[in-house]
Amino acid sequence: MVRSAALLIAARGVNATSFSDVLADSGAPRGSIYHHFPDGKHQLAQDAVRLTGEWVIGRQRACAGTTAADVLSCFVDLWRQVVLASAGASGCAVAGVAIDSSPGEGGLIAVVRSTFRSWVDLLKDQLEATGVPSTRAASIAVATVAGMEGALILCRAEGNSAPLDTVAEELMRLLPQSATAAER
Known about the structure:
Elements: H1 2-12, H2 19-26, H3 30-36, H4 41-61, H5 68-85, H6 93-100, H7 106-129, H8 134-158, H9 162-173, H10 177-183
Helix pairs in contact: 1-2, 1-4, 1-6, 4-7, 5-7, 5-8, 5-9, 6-7, 7-8, 8-9
């Protein structure tokens, strides 16, 4: 049910994803959703964000990149796969929750914030491991996460991966010259 919720939220947003949609997509019996998510849609959305966050972290940690460009390519490629698999119709469940949540939903926003920060922290650490200076690595990591989330929105609007490819090219230009020179 959580996986179905994450996929539906990535494509529709939280507000346009109902329990009925999740049940239909997952094939779970109606009673199970109320049993597993007694706090309702809010709880299901939090779990969908956590699942998405863990998926991204797992994929990025599996990245065998030894250069700064490899690290960014791994992150971009995992989102490229989402865009291509959905023909541009899907984005990121974390962004879907962030956009559809109000400031009063502090617990939900806290999970979104924590998830995005975990991605930034991992990218920063991976970039530093390739020799990118810490302050540059932190800035590039934030720009990468922000750039990919924005690219996913544009891909949805365009129905293809062209915006993602453009953003990826620009992100590569953020790498310090010393890092890109060493990679050649």
